[in-house]
Amino acid sequence: MLRALGAAMAMMAAVPAVQAAAPAPRLAKGLETGEWELRGRGEGGARRLCVSSLSQLLQSRHAGHACKNFTVSDAANRLVVTYECGAAGNGRTDLRVETSRLVQIQSQGVADGAPFAFALEGRWIGACH
Questions:
Q1: How far apart are CA 105 and CA 60, in angstroms?
Q2: CA separation, residue 76 to residues 2, 5, 7 (Å)
Q3: What angle do CA 56, 62, 66 make, to 5 degrees?
Q4: What strand order describes the sheet that includes 102-111?
Q5: Best label site of 19, 39, 48, 65, fewest CB within 10 Å?
Q6: pLDDT tens for residues 102-111?
Q7: pLDDT band with cut points at 50, 70 and 90 for residue 115
Q8: What is the pLDDT of residue 114?
């Protein structure tokens, strides 16, 4: 009996432990980090963006600016924020999450002294290159 128990333990020690894969990094609202394709509604062109922070989707017209945010509404699948970026302008963005890899974004405001308004669909493409 002791010999059988010793053999079983030796076999278990010889089998490499299976480690669970680390979960993919996530943004707020469960969105995937990585490369996203942003396509304007009613427009043919698209641009790609390596997203590591939710602010990149919420403040796309004010990228690189230090902005103050105010959350207007925060529901399970929707986030509405306003933000102020000093002389660079301000905006209001409505982000609706359809899945962790698909969002609808509507934004409007003022950037560099000119008004802007747009509607985008964002699709997760994969890891950033």
A1: 10
A2: 57, 52, 53
A3: 85
A4: 46-51, 34-40, 114-126, 102-111, 89-99, 78-84, 68-75
A5: 19
A6: 999 999 999 9
A7: very high
A8: 95
39 three-class SS: strand
What amino acid is encoded at 46 in this protein? A
Kindly report, residue by residue over 28-86, the tens digit of the pLDDT.
778 999 999 999 977 668 999 999 988 899 998 888 888 999 999 999 899 999 999 99
Determine the pLDDT at residue 26: 61
- List Cα–Cα distances, 125 to 33, 47, 100, in angstroms: 10, 11, 12
Secondary structure of 40-104 in HEC code, one letter for each residue: ECCCCCEEEEEECCCHHHHCHHHCCCCCEEEEEEEECCEEEEEEECHHHEEEEEEEEEEECCEEE
Q: How far apart, in whole angstroms, are the C-alpha atoms of residue 12 and residue 7? A: 9
- Longest Cα–Cα distance of the chain, Å, equals 84
Closest CA to 124 of 49, 61, 54: 49
